[in-house]
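Protein modeling request. Please complete all fields; requests missing the sequence field cannot be processed.
Requester role: graduate student
Desired output: 3D structure, token encoding
Chains: 1
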Amino acid sequence: MKVDLHLHTTASDGILSPKRLLRYVKLTKHELIAITDHDTVDGIKEGVLEGERLGVDVIPGVEISTYKDGKEHHILGYYFDWRDSELEDLFASMKQVREDRIKKILNNLFVHFNIRITFEELSAHFNVRNYGRPHIALVLFKKGLVESVQQAFDLYLYDDGPCNVSKLPFSSKEAVDIIHRKGGIAILAHPGIHIAQNTDMLDEFMEMGMDGIEVFHPTHTPELAEMYLDYANERDLIVTGGSDYHGYLNEDVFSLNIDLAQEQVNKMLAKVRRPLLYL
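Delivered output (279 residues):
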């Protein structure tokens, strides 16, 4: 079964609209995907409708930016009631904070590196509804100021650097709780990025009520993925995986095709706490 449970669209910081993304995954013969844009559900309806037309199952999802002990961690939510008013208010707040954050990062880029990019210039390049650092990186690349998107992060946009500005301080536990309140399941996204082999920290996240772990991710080595898989299986946790596809960091191709076992997919479906609400 060809599955990808971590995909981004123009609703946040991907380069493909939800409709175009679905056409893409149809060509790559994916059967089940999840749209997991950053701190927004704006792309779900369009994606689900196109998925129904093309015969691709689309899971309503989101990737929520959260903080624990001052460090950023991402929580994936699946199968929640994405039309809920509380979520709508939360994501609207996050969207405004994101826009204010981007403007501050652009100002820092000028102050510290004498690189001037206005918000108006940035927004003219993209037809998106939720801006992030990758959009700045792409403009730097398009202007010939860096040789790649990754170099833009390495030189200017890295965490804790002079240009960095914190996001809305939403706690990891709050994200897990709100996903559960809305009938969904909560998955720890790409733990290899911030947690690596620290099983004590993994335990702390699981004690929040996390339902599973994103075991398979492009940043995870085979050894790390095997460690996470063993950890999940020992604790009867849901196992997921995805390419974290945006459409620019991996040269516009899926960097990882997830071959989740049917039993792993079934375990995920069995944890859904309420009837699925799509449209």
